[in-house]
Amino acid sequence: MTETPAALREAHHADVSGGWLRPAVFGAMDGLVTNIALIAGVGGGGVSPKSVVLTGMAGLVAGAISMGLGEYTSVRSSNEQVAAEVAKERRELERHPEAEARELAEAWVARGLPRDLAIQVAEAVRGNPEEALRMHVREELGVDPDEQPSPWAAAISSFLCFSLGALVPLLSYLIGFTSLWLALGVGGVGLFVAGAIVARFTYRSWWSSGLRQLVLGAAAAGATYLVGAMIGIQGGIG
């Protein structure tokens, strides 16, 4: 059976321009690590299970809102900066089209294209102002002006995924168990599963990706547990 070349398939690459994957992954991991660490810290200090749940829920709500707003502001500001640079490049193309065409040709020559061919292509592109603008922006800014990430997609995916991640280590408490170690174990499973899911998009080994997230989360939980235990002992909590 003959395999169809990837270049002939309509979609042989993942969509990396929508702006949702990075904030979704970051949000889920941050939610997991943040609440695992919070629970470990207050639990290590000897507080009651009710206080652990209260702390975890407060961390979930505050963190999800912060992540959503932060992602929206970050992506929106980045897009506005790109738009300003695109407008600047558009003005230069209108005022100095010959110089801009030479600049584009030189960029292609630097990449190994024969000079005569680079000049010929740059002149041909110059006849299509919108395509010329896209070419210049790609070469000079390294971005595609027509494929900027959505700030709303980033904000919503970050908010939802942080909330889901932060909820995982609270599940055992919410269904009636009061063991801190059970909650941390559930959170550890969540970290491993989240890391394994991320491997689906990055083509890494699922077990190494899951193990990496588990180790990082365990390090954060261990540090906050020790801090909580020290404060609890010194302050006479529990």
Note the main attributes of this structure.
transmembrane helix, 9 helices, 238 residues, Ccc1_fam, membrane, mainly alpha, 0% strand, VIT family protein, elongated
List strands and helices in order, with pairings.
Blueprint: H1 21-44, H2 49-95, H3 97-110, H4 115-126, H5 129-141, H6 151-167, H7 171-174, H8 180-202, H9 206-235
Subcellular location: Endomembrane system
Transmembrane segments: 152-175, 181-202, 214-237
Main location: membrane
Could you explain the architecture of this structure?
This protein is elongated. By secondary structure, it is mainly α. Helix 3 packs antiparallel against helix 4 (115-126). It has nine helices and no strands. The chain has one domain (20-224). This is VIT family protein. It is a multi-pass membrane protein. It is found in: Endomembrane system.
What percent of residues are in strands? under 5%
List the quaternary state of the chains: single chain
Q: Quick one: how many beta strands?
A: 0
User: What is the tally of helical segments?
Assistant: 9
| Biggest beta-sheet profile | none
Number of domains: 1
**Alpha carbon gyration radius:** 25 Å
Describe the structure concisely for a colleague:
The chain has 238 residues and is an all-alpha fold. The protein has helices at 21-44, 49-95, 97-110, 115-126, 129-141, 151-167, 171-174, 180-202, 206-235. The protein has one domain (20-224).
